Each structure stands twice: as structure tokens, then as C-alpha cells.
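Sequence only, no structure available. Ideas?
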Amino acid sequence: MPDTAALGPWLRRFLCEYIVTERNLARNTRKSYRDTFSLLLPFISRKVRKPVERLAVWDFTSSHVLQFLTHLETDRGCTAQTRNQRLAAIRAFARFVGSRDPTHVEWCGHIRAIASKRAMPPPVGWLTRAEMEAMLAVPDRKARRGRSEYALLLFLYNTGARVSEATQLKVCDLQIGSRNGRHDLATLHGKGGRTRHCPLWPETERVLADEIADRTGEDAVFVSRLGTPFTRFGVYRLVERCAARVPELAGRPITPHVIRHTTACHLVLAGVDINTIRAWLGHVSISTTNIYAEIDLTLKANAVALCEVGQPRPARSWKEDKNLMAFLKAL
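Reply:
I predicted one. C-alpha cells follow.
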């Protein structure tokens, strides 16, 4: 099989050179691309009855990709958003191959012609102030483990951090204990290598100072009971476990991202302008942040009240203002 026909070398160049060196994509994006092909290659291998190592570009047909996307939704229970995310990685690979070898241009066109599925964004879930405080009250702060869990939950609520930003937080990223008039801050490393600074509440500063005592600057801030840095799945399990012990949250899917939504919604209710919230959450575009200005029922009720039918009219309309004509004639 010619080198240009073998799938393996192309995929290796795409994952190890193109998206790392040329595109400089974020680490989480690279992992997402990797996971896509970790699922796709065994699927195609079963369809064409060839080992993964012997797959050719021509085995990577549009019909097989469509079958794979259907498999994701029907067999794996993925949403349309996940399907489209996997398809985006496949399209990027096809574009990479087609731009470097003219013999694969037609194949590239067939792959890139696969349409994304229309997906309605799910409603934004968030917690009220009382529900969030009930979750924060779940960890047993008399025990060391409970104080660590409380510190993590409080940090997520204070900063609206993504899970990856919280798990990657190091001691050197915290600016706390400053008594010279400066704010206590946390430096978060977000998507695309972007960083932002989030102010910390005095309570957050207090529990974090206790959490990082006797640690060096490169140590992780949030550590599991095994002494290793918290993983994404560990944070998810913690949030789900605490939510399960709050009766008001029974039957509701509560994730760390729901806490992020909660932070944004509470900032909106506090009257913080939307551009400040955008910077707080680390959004690139303000259009992403605008969803939080639309979900609060209190704000919607106030808007409806302004145009309520049957409101009393002013005492006199402009037609009844007899002084108006006199004013015009006097000009």
C-alpha cells in the first residue's frame, strides 16, 4: 500500500504535528480529536474487516462515517451536540489530507459534505441562592476531607470556573493573604491558553489558605483523598454526591457546569453588567454570555409588567392639551 494511501501515517501527522504545531489547538481540543478517532477506527475496522493498522484512506468512506455518527446516537446514547463535535474532528482531518495530497481531494469533498445535525441548545440549568447554600452545607467541615470538598465547591461558585480550570489550578496561581489593599485573586487558565483573574471572597480566601498550607507553588490546590490532584471525573462525582443529599435537587442533573451557570445568573441578579460577566467567565464573545440575561424569570416578569395590557393611561392625551396649539401659534 503506498504511503499516501495508508491511513495511519496521515492520522499521526494530523494529531502530532498539524493540530499541535500549525494550529496550536488547546489541549482539551486535542484530546477530543484523539477520542473521536479512538472510537472511529475500531468501528471502521469492524465494517471493512481489516486490522486498524492496515486501514487505508479509501476505507474511510462517507457512508461509514454516517454509520458511525448514527452509532454514536443510537448505541452510545450521545446527543446531537456530541455527534456534531465528532463530525467536526473528522472534517478537520479530511481537510488536512485533501490540502496536502491532490489525489484525495475528491474523498475530502465527500467527507466534508456530511451535514451537521440541527441541535437545539439545552435549557440552561442553575441553582437558586438557597439551593447553592444547601449544597455548600453538605460537606462535613469538621473533618479534613469535608473542608477540602467545601473549598472546591465554594471556589467553583465564587469564580464560575470550568472543571479543567479548577483541576489545573496550582498554588502559584493564587494571590491570597495580601494585606496591602490588593484584592485576593485566582489566575485561571482557560480555553485556548487564555488566562483571566477572578477576585475571591474573604471566605474563599480563608478556606483556600487553609487548603494550601505547607504546599509549594507547583502543587495542585485541590487534592483528592488519595493525595493526587482532583480529576474531572472526581469533581463531577463530588458535585453529584453533594446534590443528591439536597432534597430540593432530587431528580435534577447537577454538574459542575450548572454551578458555573449559577454564578453567572447570580451576577445578573446582582445587577452586574453583562460585559463584566463575560470577562468573569472567560467568554471570547459576549453573545455567549447573553444567554444569562434571558433566563431569569424575575427579569422577564419585570419586562412584561412594563407593557401590561390595561394599565391606566396618562390623565390627558396630547389632543386634549389646549396649550399646545397656542404654543405652536406663538412660534
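The first helix runs from residue 7 to 22.
Hope that gets you unstuck.
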